[in-house]
Specification:
This protein has one helix at 49-54, and strands at 2-4, 11-12, 19-20, 29-37, 40-48. The protein is 7% helix and 28% strand.
Length: 88
């Protein structure tokens, strides 16, 4: 799965051994692989997106991330005046 690197990430790239670190000014991406052996989950591997490509995509093509649902409007405050009701 191809995902954005989030703040607080503290994982190491399986390919290069360097930290997969968040950088505020650059939207870097990582590949996260759930590895199964004989149909049983064994581990998670993290890669910089570029390292995954240079490693020859060892677990196949990375899936695109699921779309992010739209944000909902904040709930009305208890102190806010009520919404006017439409005239009938």
């Amino acid at each position: 799965m191809l995902r954005a690197i989030e703040a607080g990430s503290s994982v190491t790239c399986r390919e290069c051994g360097e930290p997969v670190k968040f950088r505020a000014k650059v939207r870097l991406q990582q590949v996260i692989c759930n590895v199964y052996v004989k149909g049983v989950w064994e581990r998670v591997e993290h890669y910089h997106a570029e390292c995954y490509e240079s490693a020859g995509q060892p677990h196949g093509e990375a899936a695109a991330p699921a779309p992010t649902p739209p944000r909902r409007a904040p709930a009305a405050s208890a102190d806010a005046p009520p919404e006017p009701t439409p005239a009938a």
